[in-house]
Amino acid sequence: MMRRGGSIVLLSLALAACEVGPDYQVPDTAEVNAPAARGAFVAESAAVIAQEPDPQWWRIYRSAVLDRFVTQALAANTDLRVADANLERAHAILEVAKAARQPNVTFDFEAQYGQLSAEQYLSPRMVPTGVLYDLGLTASYEVDIFGRIARGIEAAHAQDEAAVAARDLVRVTVAASVTSAYTDYCSAGEELASARRTLALERHRLVFVRRLFAAGRSTSLDVTQFAGDVAQVESSIPTFEAQRRNALFLIATVTSRPPETPGIAITDCRNAGILAVPIPVGDGASLLRRRPDVREAERVLAAMTARIGVATADLYPTVTLGATVGSTGVIQDFLKPLTNRYGFGPGIN
Question: Where do you find CATH 2.20.200.10 in the chain?
Fold first, then answer.
C-alpha cells in the first residue's frame, strides 16, 4: 500500500505540468501585427520626428510653471489615487493567487470544561466530567494536475498588468488635461492682449473719423462702420476672458486646489506655448504599445483567457496531499500516547 501511495504521488507530480484551457497569444488580426503599424507615420511637417517620446512629454514646452502644475496634479488628483489603490488591490490578489501554490497549514487548540455523552460512545457508564482539550496541526497541498492554480496565477498576473495600464491611462489623462488647460490659458491671454491692442487702435480710428466727419471730410456711414468695428472687437474680449477663467478652473480641478490659491492664479502667462523641439511620435506599433487603454484591453483579454482555463480545470478532479497530527483528551492526560493521533494521505475531490 505504501508503494501504491508513492506511485500515486509521483504520477500526480508528473501530471502537474498539464494545464487545460486555451493558451493566450496576441490575435493575428491585432492592429499591432499589421504591416502598416510597423511603418513610419506619414508626416509632411517638420514639427514631428520619428522618435520615441519622453514619458514626461509635457517638458517639450520648457515651462517651469507647467511642470509644477503637472507635478501637483499627479500628486493630488483624486482619480489617480483611486487608480493607485486599485493597483495595490491587484498586487494583493496576485500574491493571494501565488500563495495557492504553497502548502496550507492550520493550527487550532480548544479547551473546555464539560461532560461527554456516554451513549455517544455506546458506554453504559457516565463519562466523568473534566477539562477536555483538542490540539491539532493540519497541512494540505493541492497537486495542480490540470493547472487550475497556474491558470489562476496567470489570470491574476494579467489583471495586475491591466491595473498598471489603467493607472498609466489616468496619469496620461491628468497630465494631458493640465497641459491642455495651461496652453489654452496662455493662448487666450495672448489673444486677449491682441484684442485689447486692436480695440485701442479701433477707438483711435473712430475718433479720427469723427473729426473728419465734423470737418466735412467723411460721411456718417464711415462713422457708423468704424463704430461697428469697435463694438465687434469689444464683444470678443469677454470671450477670451471666459476662456482664461475656464482654463484656470480646469487646472484647479485637476490639481485638487481652489482657483484662488496662490500659484493657481496665473497672471504672467500672456503668450502661447512654443514647442522647444519637434514632437516625437515614433511609429504606429510603438504608439499602440504606449497607449495605456490598448494595453489595458489586451491584458484584460489575457486574464479572461486564463480564467477559461480555471473554469475548465474545475471540471476535473482535485488531488490534495494532506497530513494531520494532534492530541485529544482530558487535560490530565495532555500529550500522552492514548491521546495522540495522526494521519496522512491523498484526497481526491
Answer: 102-143+317-349
